[in-house]
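TICKET: design request
STATUS: open
ATTACHED STRUCTURE:
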């Protein structure tokens, strides 16, 4: 987990089919994430969003692997 991601552990994810998800935004505080989530749900009521806390400590979490795959689709995921 890179330093910037450690500073912003609260994530809002968009729920996708087949148990997939997409990190929409990372935030520092839970109340910021709740306010952002409220706005997203108001703008897009048919799309599923959730707040998750991305725990630091593991070498590479699922959220990071997915972000890496989206940002660089040609690079194989480690």
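STATUS: resolved
RESOLUTION: sequence designed for all positions
ATTACHED SEQUENCE:
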């Amino acid at each position: 987990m890179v330093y910037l991601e450690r500073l912003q552990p609260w994530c809002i994810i968009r729920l996708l089919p087949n148990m997939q998800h997409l990190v929409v935004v990372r935030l520092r505080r839970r109340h910021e994430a709740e306010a952002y989530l409220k706005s997203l749900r108001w703008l897009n009521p048919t799309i599923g969003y959730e707040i998750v806390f991305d725990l630091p400590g593991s070498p590479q979490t699922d959220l990071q692997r997915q972000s890496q795959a989206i940002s660089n689709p040609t690079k194989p995921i480690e």
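CLOSING REMARK: The longest helix spans residues 30-43. The chain has one domain: 3-71.
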